[in-house]
């Protein structure tokens, strides 16, 4: 029918324009009070991890997830769902600020510029985003609600000021949360972080630790992401045991996960910062050494301090001893940096025979090593495994698990659960973030900004570079900082710390549901309809964004601001696209491929099909300029095959060969199932196989070709739309119902094999037509009814008549 050349540029431009003009991607909102229609349709909320618009623009790796979610969203729409598939910008934070400093422009200007660039790049790829719902975390109308959430957290006692030492990045010049570290280094810039005591705002995420773990079970997420969250939260069941310090009124609480080993404790260790150390000052005869040691360890990170195998250091507190509550033994007390102040109780009972770090320490300081669990060889190393108790008084002979409770009770201690998760350090000493909405008044203390005064707008400054003093650059803007106290009207000062870049992204998905609401962060009725997110597509962030967002969501649920307790029902984790050289795509390596160039040369449809065809979605794969030609040819061949569809709709019907009809139905089924399962590469292979067969035909029935176009459209929407219209349709293919397949026409690819023993029929079985000859013979021999006759005998010969029968000759 059509013999025109496939001109991707013309087609793609044309349809993008037509789609926009017709507004086909606008999401109808059945939950809004004005809506009259569509209320009965099911919904599907498809979400991408929204990008941070960097100065470098998009490279071809970025759209991979967006292409997948776009295909999925189109598929759902055609299957009768109301689809919400929005996009926005995560634009606060250090990267934006650093880009601005480097290029000497204001971060706001830089963000505007970068957003425009990103949007242009994305629009070239033909996504079905409803741009009316675009959000930007740096928009005052948006961050008003980020600040509102903070006020609610404050009101509920979940935001508090703390003076504990915080991770400080000397390069980024700001305090950081544990989640912002890569081991002992700043996740952004790779600098070793320091511990620095300073005032900071902290969110009590630990209050949600149990629920964050428990609710993972109900989520359709990759197991490795769930496991990463469980480990990050790090719940452990343990006990608090009290050790008396002899000749004093002081008790030391130690936290242990192995109370069963209490009889094997040979010394006690306190974190150098532990407050009991100061209380014992008068009794400690080597106080000078204590002070020197404290000064020395200030520079180390927690991870360094506790690393196994690291040279152990410590100082014995001369003049004091602790009493083991189960046998009244006197144990020396040390301070050592491998015990952390803010984990457990900041004090441990050391059991060198069964704990590796204690073992290393005991060896170095020549302390006794006493075996209390049978099973290892403690002359060589600590035995940390399971076993039976020994040298443990009346508990000897008991198993570890049982002994935990028994020994704890006997010692007068208490069972206790602890977590590895720390409260979320929430303040940054940088300019480009949401101002924390509180005011400090000398008389009233810390006063929340009244809700009616939100948003607290980020003021313009001349210099937004970090001050280096540990104060935000906002501290220098006097007319912004100096305010009246909302309570007493006296002189007061604004909080000058800003929020971390994870703040805005912890709730953004909710705002898409109701982006312009001025009275609430989201209307509850609308939220009830659209939430939770049905599929969330993105990578990384397992223990950062995905934990923070779940925490905030649960909080919002608790205060009645949302209807469900989990935000993301299903998570599809994507594997990244590397450069051709196998490295990460980066300006630094000069290996960046720009999607604009690919769209220009090959077309957006080719880019889309290529990225989905690179391999399983969750796998990492390297870009390859040569392979892109395959998908391009595939599209060209679809284009040409259209000429086999008769022009007249009344032309002969029912002549299609049966094999093609079968394959057609199989293809529709496979593509439908594969899109649902995010298996885009195998969906494309199946369509390619089907295309091969269509090409062998003289004519293709219109109905079949149209059915094919509809399942092809999510992958290559522009070319599909063009062909659809060429066939004389005047609807948009996006508004068409999905192709239905006929189960009755999907013939099984199996064969039935008869099995004879010495010529007599003994059984039959079914197997796939692809089963190898040897496999068929083996399957035949293994059938019980056959074995009955062959048991104990060696067959002389096994004959296989292809696809029909196996004869075992005895
Ligand atoms: C005695 C013991 C015997 C321990 C034994 C282990 C094995 P997780 O599982 O990570 O929670 N510990 C407790 N508080 C600590 C702190 N503030 N800094 C460093 N280490 C601390 O680890 C719990 C175990 O780590 C605790 O159990 C304690 O050592 C140590 F055979 O107590 B154990
Ligand atoms: Zn840094």
Offer a quick outline of the entry.
The protein has 810 residues and is α+β, with helices and mostly antiparallel strands.
Top keywords for this entry?
binds ligand ANZ; 25 helices; seven-stranded mixed β-sheet; binds zinc ion; 810 residues; four-stranded parallel β-sheet; Isoleucyl-tRNA Synthetase, domain 2; Ubiquitin-like (UB roll); alpha+beta
Major sheet characteristics: 7 strands, mixed
Percent range for β-strand residues? 15-25%
- CATH topology description of the domain at 236-418: Isoleucyl-tRNA Synthetase, domain 2
| Portion of residues within helices | 25-40%
This entry's quaternary arrangement is single chain
Low-confidence stretches: none
Task: Find the structural class using helix and strand composition.
Answer: alpha+beta
Number of helices: 25
The CATH class of the domain at 236-418, by name, is Alpha Beta
Name of the CATH architecture of the domain at 236-418: Alpha-Beta Complex
Shape: globular
Taking the alpha carbons of the first and last residues, their distance comes to: 63 Å
| Bound molecule types | ligand ANZ, zinc ion
Q: Give a count of the beta strands, DSSP E runs of length 2 or more.
A: 31
Write down the Rg.
Answer: 34 Å
Mean pLDDT, to the nearest integer, reads 93
Look at the structure and name the CATH superfamily of the domain at 236-418: Valyl/Leucyl/Isoleucyl-tRNA synthetase, editing domain
């Amino acid at each position: 029918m059509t013999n025109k050349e496939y001109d991707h540029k013309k087609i793609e431009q044309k349809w993008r324009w037509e789609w926009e003009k017709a507004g086909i991607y606008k999401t109808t909102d059945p939950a809004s009070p004005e809506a009259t229609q569509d209320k009965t349709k099911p919904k599907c909320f498809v979400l991408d991890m929204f990008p941070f618009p960097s100065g470098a623009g998009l490279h071809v790796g970025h759209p991979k997830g967006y292409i997948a979610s776009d295909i999925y969203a189109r598929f759902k729409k055609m299957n009768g769902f109301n689809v919400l598939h929005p996009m926005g910008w995560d634009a606060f934070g250090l990267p934006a600020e650093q880009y601005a400093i480097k290029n000497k422009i204001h971060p706001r200007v830089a963000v505007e510029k970068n957003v425009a660039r990103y949007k242009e790049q994305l629009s070239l790829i033909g996504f079905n985003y409803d741009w009316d719902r675009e959000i930007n975390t740096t928009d005052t109308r948006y961050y008003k609600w980020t600040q509102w959430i903070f006020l609610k957290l404050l009101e509920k006692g979940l935001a508090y000021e703390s003076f504990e030492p915080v991770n400080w990045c000397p390069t980024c010049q700001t305090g950081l949360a544990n989640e912002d570290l890569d081991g002992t280094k700043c996740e952004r810039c790779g600098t070793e972080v320091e511990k620095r005591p300073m005032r900071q705002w902290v969110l009590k995420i630990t209050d949600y630790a149990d629920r964050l773990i428990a609710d993972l079970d109900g989520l359709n997420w990759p197991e490795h992401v769930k496991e990463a969250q469980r480990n990050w939260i790090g719940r452990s069941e343990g006990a608090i045991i009290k050790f008396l310090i002899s000749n004093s009124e002081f008790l030391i609480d130690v936290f242990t996960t192995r109370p069963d080993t209490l009889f094997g404790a040979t010394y006690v260790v306190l974190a150098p910062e532990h407050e009991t150390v100061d209380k014992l000052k008068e009794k400690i005869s080597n106080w000078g050494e204590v002070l020197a040691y404290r000064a020395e360890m200030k520079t180390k990170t927690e991870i360094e301090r506790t690393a196994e195998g690291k040279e152990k250091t410590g100082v014995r507190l001369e003049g004091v001893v602790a009493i083991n509550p189960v046998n009244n033994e006197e144990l020396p007390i040390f301070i050592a940096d491998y015990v952390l102040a803010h984990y457990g109780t900041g004090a441990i009972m050391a059991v060198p025979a069964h704990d590796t770090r204690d073992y290393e320490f005991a060896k170095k300081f020549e302390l006794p090593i006493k075996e209390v669990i049978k099973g290892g060889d403690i002359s060589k190393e600590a035995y940390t495994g399971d076993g039976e108790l020994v040298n443990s008084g009346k508990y000897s002979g008991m198993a570890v698990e049982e002994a935990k409770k028994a020994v704890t009770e006997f010692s007068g201690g208490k069972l206790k659960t602890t977590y590895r998760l720390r409260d979320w350090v929430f303040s940054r000493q940088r300019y480009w973030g949401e101002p924390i909405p509180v005011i400090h008044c000398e008389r009233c203390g810390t006063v929340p900004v009244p809700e009616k005064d939100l948003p607290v707008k980020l003021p313009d400054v001349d210099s937004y570079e970090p001050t280096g003093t540990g104060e935000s650059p906002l501290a220098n803007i006097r007319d912004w900082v100096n305010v009246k106290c909302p309570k007493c009207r006296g002189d007061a000062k604004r909080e000058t710390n800003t929020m971390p870049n994870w703040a805005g992204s912890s709730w953004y998905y909710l705002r898409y549901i109701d982006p312009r609401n001025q009275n609430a962060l989201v209307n509850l009725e609308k939220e009830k309809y659209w939430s939770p997110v049905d599929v969330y597509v993105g990578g990384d962030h397992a223990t950062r964004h995905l934990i923070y967002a779940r925490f905030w969501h649960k909080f919002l649920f608790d205060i009645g601001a949302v209807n469900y307790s989990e935000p993301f029902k299903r998570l599809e984790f994507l594997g990244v696209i590397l450069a051709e050289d196998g490295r990460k795509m980066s300006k630094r390596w000069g290996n960046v491929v720009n999607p604009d160039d690919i769209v220009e040369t090959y077309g957006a449809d080719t880019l889309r099909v290529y990225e989905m065809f690179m391999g399983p979605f969750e796998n990492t794969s390297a870009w390859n300029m040569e392979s892109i030609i395959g998908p391009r040819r595939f599209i060209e061949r679809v284009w040409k095959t259209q000429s086999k569809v008769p022009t007249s709709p009344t032309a002969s019907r029912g002549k299609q060969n049966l094999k093609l009809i079968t394959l057609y139905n199989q293809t529709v089924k496979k593509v439908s199932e594969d899109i649902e399962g995010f298996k885009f590469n195998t969906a494309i292979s199946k369509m390619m196989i089907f295309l091969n067969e269509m090409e062998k035909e003289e004519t293709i029935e219109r109905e079949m070709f149209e059915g094919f176009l509809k399942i092809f459209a999510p992958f290559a929407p522009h070319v599909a739309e063009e062909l659809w219209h060429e066939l004389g349709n005047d609807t948009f293919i996006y508004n068409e119902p999905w192709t239905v397949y006929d189960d009755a026409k999907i013939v099984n690819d199996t064969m039935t094999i008869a099995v004879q023993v010495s010529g007599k029929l003994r059984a039959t079985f079914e197997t796939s037509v692809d089963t190898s000859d040897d496999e068929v013979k083996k399957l035949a021999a293994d059938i019980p009814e056959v074995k009955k006759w062959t048991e104990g005998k060696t067959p002389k010969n096994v004959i296989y008549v292809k696809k029909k029968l196996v004869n075992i000759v005895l």
